[in-house]
Design brief:
This protein has 13 helices and 2 strands. The chain is globular and about 85 Å long. The chain has a domain of about 190 residues: MetI-like (MetI-like fold). A two-stranded antiparallel ribbon has the order 1-2. By secondary structure, it is mainly α.
């Protein structure tokens, strides 16, 4: 427990300069981009007179210098205030709290499904490398991984929503359904079935191949030969020795792919019209809403740091030597 607390403390301290660098670089990139929220608003209403433009820039604080706006934003962050969304005319923090749970629910379900089933199939394939089962699973995973996510999502939507009419075609839940409790949970699950399946099938193939490759490498190590010489059953060798040691690179891939799903959710949420974090980022870019986009990038960075912290904890559980070296350093 103490080792875990020390690891969390070290990660928390090291994440502070990382977040400051991300905020500073993101602010500079947004400043160097042409146009702002006022320009996007004028385009949507068909233009405006100079007095309107000047009043809008003053109300949004865009008439100040870059350093003044940066200092104002940093001081607001110190008070946990992420600013005001120009496009939605709402606080940024409220928008993030509203949209983020939908994406986390979709990503968490897809990651759990892909990791669980991909690991199981990878163990089945890696238990006997070169067998017919291994070749069939490896070929199937390669085909799945080669399919573009947007195309897979559209095909699943056409098949299960348009043709068979088994699942809803879009949204996070039925609008104004009045459902509560288990009925609402079942409705949300039905709406998330297709986007979760789309994300999970692609990453399932990746996890399967990584697990299979890791097990094929572990089979050649000396301690596996020693376990065979002791007369241990093949099932025990596969589960207790080969699969456990092959999990380390898979856990690393889990952390990388979980963070990448935040970017991939933009396409999936657009296809299935899910009001999530990725779609909010798309709306912020199209509306040139710099405060909202800054909040989205900062929140994404925090999520990536938290995911990597969980991966470090898993590493220390799978291999105590890793956790001991981290805590001691």
């Amino acid at each position: 427990m103490k080792r875990a607390i020390r690891l969390i403390r070290r990660r928390a301290i090291s994440s502070i300069p990382v977040l400051l660098i991300i905020v500073f670089l993101t602010f500079l990139l947004l400043e160097s981009a042409s146009g702002d929220a006022v320009d996007a608003y004028l385009v949507s209403i068909g233009g405006g007179d100079p007095s309107l433009v000047q009043s809008l820039r003053q109300s949004y604080g865009l008439d100040q210098s870059m350093m003044a706006r940066l200092w104002l934003y940093l001081s607001s962050l110190a008070r946990l205030d992420l600013g005001w969304s120009v496009a939605f005319d709402r606080p940024v923090l409220g928008l993030l709290i509203e949209r983020l749970p939908n994406t986390l629910l979709m990503m968490g379900s897809a990651t759990a499904f892909a990791f669980g089933l991909g690991t199981t199939l990878g163990i089945l394939a890696g238990a006997r490398p070169g067998s017919l089962r291994d070749r069939l699973l490896s070929t199937t995973s390669l085909i799945l991984y080669a399919i573009p996510g947007f195309w897979l999502g559209l095909m699943l939507s056409i098949l299960f929503s348009v043709q068979l009419r088994w699942l809803p075609v879009s949204g996070i839940e039925t609008i104004a359904s009045g459902r509560t409790g288990l009925a609402r949970a079942a409705d949300i699950a039905a709406h998330l079935a297709l986007p979760v399946a789309t994300l999970a099938l692609i990453y399932l193939a990746l996890f399967l191949r990584v697990m299979r490759a890791g097990m094929a490498e572990v089979w050649t190590l000396d301690f596996i030969l020693f376990a065979r010489a002791r007369g241990l059953s093949r099932t025990r060798i596969v589960l207790r020795h080969v699969a456990r040691n092959a999990l380390l690179p898979l856990v690393t891939m889990l952390g990388l792919r979980s963070a990448a799903m935040l970017g991939g959710s933009v396409v999936i949420e657009s296809i299935f019209a899910i009001p999530g974090f990725g779609r909010l980022a798309q709306e912020a870019v199209s509306g040139r809403d710099a405060p909202l986009l800054m909040g989205i990038i900062l929140t994404s960075a925090i999520l990536v740091i938290l995911i990597n912290l969980v991966i470090d904890m898993l590493y220390s559980w799978l291999d105590p030597r890793v956790g001991a070296s981290e805590a001691a350093s």
